[in-house]
Write a structure and sequence with these properties.
By secondary structure, the protein is α/β, with parallel strands linked by helices. Helices cover 41% and strands 15% of the residues. It contains eleven helices and eight strands. The protein has an eight-stranded parallel beta barrel with strand order 1-2-3-4-5-6-7-8, surrounded by six helices. Helix 10 links the parallel strand 7 and strand 8. Helix 10 packs parallel to helix 11. The longest helix has 19 residues, at 181-199. The two termini are 15 Å apart. The structure holds 1,3-dihydroxyacetonephosphate. 1,3-dihydroxyacetonephosphate (13P) binds at residues 9, 96, 168, 173-174, 211-214, 232-236.
């Protein structure tokens, strides 16, 4: 049985007091979530300590949104995987399309980040997905294939077992456009097929999340697809009611 996950990527939103209030609102309603759904929140770095303190008595896990590609040292502004793990985080998002697009993150950088996250006991939520022009040109399979092969195929099976994959078509992020359940299932099945070629039966155990304007009104249809194991939620994760409603879509 694959783990079902609903993860909230807060991106660069909320002040610390606002983030604490959001975490408290989620903690207060966590009993309403099916026991087999793992909730995760990924607030900004400044919030990791207070949000972890609020959520440590609940089953909600805390994730970072990124980690450095170096273990420590003179890298001003960076936050190391070891630091993230030291405040009780158990996950980190890696390779989000906003990091790739705006901060020039490449597969080469992501290979280093992946290794450091895993070495420090963090479970990576590795994001892949095509841009709008790539989808229009029918290149989405090849784009996603390269993102998977270049970063995940160098991992051992033991490492791969700790990775969560998130498919996020860039054209659906924050745009209100959502991939149809059919489009999402098609590419999720394709990703699982790629993982099967490299890692064999382990591919059936890997959680693959959908991200991109996932909200309470479409979560049920998306989560009903056989290869969609949950969601990575942006905008809708900033409202406790919507985030909980998405998790209840299972
Ligand atoms: P939205 O849900 O706001 O489209 O964002 C998706 C996302 O990028 C999550 O990482």
């Amino acid at each position: 049985m694959r783990k079902k996950i609903v993860a909230g990527n807060w991106k660069m939103n909320t002040t610390v007091p606002e983030g604490k209030a959001l975490a408290e609102a989620i903690a207060a309603r966590v009993k309403e979530i099916p026991a087999d759904v793992q909730l995760i929140v990924a607030p900004p770095f400044t919030h990791l300590v207070p949000v972890s303190e609020i959520l440590c008595k609940t089953p909600v896990a805390v994730s970072a949104q990124d980690c450095a590609d170096e273990p420590k040292g003179a890298f001003t502004g960076e936050v190391a995987a070891s630091m993230i793990a030291s405040v009780g985080c158990t996950y980190t998002i890696l390779g989000h399309s906003e990091r790739r697009q705006y901060y020039g993150e490449t597969s080469q950088t992501l290979v280093k980040k992946m290794a450091l996250a895993l070495e420090n006991g963090l479970k990576p939520i590795y994001c892949v997905g095509e841009m709008k022009d790539e989808r229009v040109a029918g290149r989405h399979f090849e784009v996603v294939k390269a993102q998977i092969e270049e970063v995940l195929f160098g991992l051992s099976a033991e490492q791969m077992a700790k990775v969560v994959v998130a498919y996020e078509p860039v054209w659906a992020i924050g745009t209100g456009l959502t991939a149809t359940a059919e489009q999402a299932q098609e590419i999720h099945a394709y990703i699982r097929g790629l993982l099967r070629e490299k890692f064999g039966a382990l591919a059936e155990e890997i959680t693959i999340l959908y991200g991109g304007s996932c909200k309470p009104s479409n979560a049920k249809e998306l989560f009903a697809c056989p290869d969609i194991d949950g969601g990575l939620i942006g905008g809708a994760s900033l409202k406790a009611d919507d985030f909980i409603a998405i998790a209840q879509a299972y």
